Amino acid sequence: MKRIFKKLSIWLMVASLGLIMSSLTVILFVHYWAHTEAGKVPPKTAVLLHAVHHNLVTPDMSAPKFFSPRGAPRFTSEMVDIPVSDGSTIESKIYKPIAEGPHPIILYYHGGASWKDMETFIRMIIL
């Protein structure tokens, strides 16, 4: 019986050590991703930007519940037209934090996604 408990306790220690090492690895990667050329971004934003950069997010995905807004709004948004050199404009949407800064700037340009897809992406980044 003692032998069984000894093997079980060794197995539990090894499993615990593996869990701790896995958790530390994830924490270190997220910490690394959060430091961008433009400054530090929140952990959720860092993970999402990493996923988008490596094509791990598909257009038909919906935002996980923990990205859904709750409480008072933290951002305002407005549509603007950015003039370009040929005289035309690029329709853009600017999201501004309500809280005092400084805040990092995230410039996301894309080719052809609909505003519905963009809204899902933006909700995941700004929350």
Automatic annotation (TrEMBL):
<keyword id="KW-0472">Membrane</keyword>
<feature type="transmembrane region" description="Helical">
    <location>
        <begin position="12"/>
        <end position="34"/>
    </location>
</feature>
<dbReference type="InterPro" id="IPR029058">
    <property type="entry name" value="AB_hydrolase_fold"/>
</dbReference>
<keyword id="KW-0812">Transmembrane</keyword>
<keyword id="KW-1133">Transmembrane helix</keyword>
<protein>
    <submittedName>
        <fullName>Lipase</fullName>
    </submittedName>
</protein>
